[in-house]
Amino acid sequence: MSRLDVTEKIINTKVTQGLSWADVAQKVGQSKEWTTALCLGQMTATPAQAATLGEIFGLSADEQKWLMVVPYKGSLPTSVPTDPLIYRFYELVSVYGTTFKELIHEEFGDGIMSAIDFKMDMQRQADPNGDRVNIVMSGKFLPYKQY
Questions:
Q1: Annotated catalytic residue: which of 75, 91, 94, 102?
Q2: Residue of 8, 20, 60, 88 marked catalytic
Q3: Alpha carbons 114 and 142: distance in angstroms, whole number
Q4: Confidence (pTM)
Q5: Structural domains of the chain, with CATH
Q6: 71 — phi, psi (to 5°)?
């Protein structure tokens, strides 16, 4: 058994039971974005969160333990993603990455946006020309230090 096996069981159960990530997140007590990342093997659960997910997805005690192991982060099988939706995010960074970097450095100075102290909110935005995906990402600014 591995973390990947547990992730696959969670996805299989979600599909067969017709669950939504928002419903799972509500039971876990976290955002749908973070909870989805947890269930897909990218975050670490507390014992209480693992137990809740165990109840939702029918996970054994051993399977729940895998949810509490710090994962190897980064879930893409290739450096350039082939899934069309994920590729568009890669394209955003390819096209706008230097713009993000330039504007962050201009506004904040020499540093980075944290992916650890980070929040994300994804919402569907109605639009008469076709619904839009609205993603807001907020990461703490971490300045490089001199030493």
A1: 91
A2: 88
A3: 7
A4: 0.84
A5: 3-67 (1.10.260.40), 84-143 (3.30.1160.10)
A6: -80, 160
State yes or no: is 8 an active-site residue: no
Tokens standing for residue 65: 């333990």
The amino acid sitting at 135 is: I
114 is catalytic: yes
- Per-residue pLDDT tens digits for 78-135: 888 899 999 999 999 999 999 999 999 999 999 999 999 999 999 999 999 999 999 9
**Structure tokens given for 74:** 């980064």
Task: Specify the length of the chain in residues.
Answer: 147
User: Do residues 31 and 49 touch, judged by C-beta distance below 8 A?
Assistant: no
Q: What is the pLDDT of residues 30-87, one digit of tens each?
A: 999 999 999 999 999 999 999 999 999 999 999 999 999 999 888 777 888 899 999 9
Residue 33: active-site member:
no
> What are the beta bridge partners of residue 112?
142
Residue showing tokens 């109840």: 55
